[in-house]
Design brief:
single chain; Phosphorylase Kinase, domain 1; D-amino Acid Aminotransferase, Chain A, domain 1; 2 domains; seven-stranded antiparallel beta sheet; globular
C-alpha cells in the first residue's frame, strides 16, 4: 500500500478548498477535480491521523455506485482515469491516481439530502425526546435501529468546515432551494436510496441511512454529485447481526465514533489515533467495499 495522503499538494492546479476529506481544484470553466484524501473526521472534527488508502476506497466505491445508479439519476462524473485527465493533472499522478475524479462543475445546492431507512443516530436521539425526526412525526413505540415503514427524507444544512450540520424539516429545505428543486432532490434521494438498499440487502448489508449531495447543471437539471454511498456518508450494518432495540455493528465510521466516545473525546480538538484504531477502521472500509462489489479495493 502507498503511504497515506493527508492532503494533496498540486501547486500548479487552482485549489478552491479543502473539506473534511476532499481537496477541490478548478481545472477550467466547466470542470473540477475532486481528490479524496486519507483524512478522517468524526463529530465534524478532522483527526490528526489519516487512514491509509481510505481516499482510494471512497473513490472506488463512489465510482461503483455512480455506475450502478446511473439509470436512477445523472451524475457529475466525467472520468476517474488519470490518463484521460488534462496534462496539468497527470503530472501529479503519483498523488492523484486512484483517488481523484474529474467532474462537471455544477451549482451545488446548499442542503444535504439525508435518507433514513432505520431510526438511529441523531434521528433516534430526537425521536426519544419528542417523537419526531427533523420535526416529522413518527409512530409511537419505535425502538432503536427499527426499520421505518418507508424511507424518510430528512435534509440538513451544510455547515462551514468545523461547524455542525443542522437537521431541518423538508419544508425548510424548500424555502432554501425552492419548491421545485426541493421536490426533485427528495424524489431522487429516496429513489437512489431504495435502489442501493435493495442491492446491498442481497449482499448482506443493511444501509441504515445515507447522505447525498446534488447540484444543478446548465440546463437546470438536478444532478447527483460528490461522493455516493460510502462508509463516510452512510451507515452500513451487517444483516446477519442486526437486531432491534440496540446499537449495531457497522462497516463505517461508527467504530471510530465509539472509540472516541470511550476516551471521552471533547468533540472539538483533534486527536492522534492508535495504530489499532487506524488498522481496524481501514479494514472496515475495505470489507464494506469487498462485500458490496465482490472485489478487493485497489490500494
Amino acid at each position: 500500500m502507498t503511504s497515506a495522503v493527508l492532503q494533496s499538494n498540486c501547486p500548479d492546479l487552482d485549489l478552491i478548498t479543502r473539506g473534511k476529506v476532499r481537496d477541490l481544484y478548478r481545472i477550467d470553466a466547466e470542470h473540477l477535480l475532486f481528490v479524496a484524501s486519507d483524512r478522517i473526521s468524526a463529530f465534524d472534527v478532522i483527526m490528526d491521523t489519516p487512514i491509509p488508502g481510505k481516499g482510494k476506497i471512497l473513490t472506488q466505491l463512489s465510482l461503483f455506485w455512480f455506475d450502478l445508479l446511473s439509470p436512477v439519476s445523472p451524475n457529475h462524473l466525467v472520468t476517474a482515469d488519470i490518463n484521460e485527465m488534462p496534462a496539468a493533472v497527470q503530472k501529479y499522478a503519483d498523488q492523484l491516481a486512484g483517488r481523484s475524479m474529474l467532474v462537471r462543475q455544477l451549482e451545488i445546492l446548499p442542503v444535504e439530502a439525508i435518507v433514513r431507512g432505520y431510526i438511529t443516530g441523531s434521528g433516534w436521539k430526537e425521536y426519544r425526546k419528542q417523537g419526531t425526526v427533523c420535526d416529522i412525526p413518527l409512530p409511537e413505540g419505535l425502538q432503536e435501529s427499527a426499520k421505518l415503514a418507508a424511507p424518510l427524507y430528512t435534509p440538513s444544512t451544510k455547515a462551514e468546515l468545523g461547524a455542525h450540520d443542522e437537521n431541518i424539516h423538508p419544508d425548510k429545505a424548500a424555502e432554501i432551494i425552492g419548491a421545485e428543486r426541493a421536490a426533485a432532490v427528495s424524489d431522487k434521494s429516496i429513489a437512489l436510496y431504495s435502489a442501493a438498499r435493495d442491492y446491498a440487502a442481497e449482499r448482506g448489508i443493511i444501509i441504515a441511512d445515507t447522505k447525498f449531495e446534488f447540484g444543478v447543471d446548465a440546463s437546470g437539471a438536478v444532478v447527483l454529485a460528490d461522493e455516493v454511498l460510502t462508509p463516510d456518508s452512510s451507515r452500513f450494518w451487517p444483516a446477519d447481526s442486526y437486531g432491534v432495540g440496540r446499537g449495531q455493528d457497522s462497516f463505517d465510521k461508527q467504530y471510530l465514533r465509539d472509540y472516541l466516545e470511550s476516551i471521552g473525546f471533547d468533540k472539538t480538538n483533534p486527536v492522534e489515533l492508535p495504530d489499532e484504531v487506524v488498522a481496524n477502521t481501514q479494514a472496515k472500509y475495505a470489507e464494506a467495499y469487498t462485500i458490496l462489489t465482490g472485489q478487493s479495493p485497489e490500494l
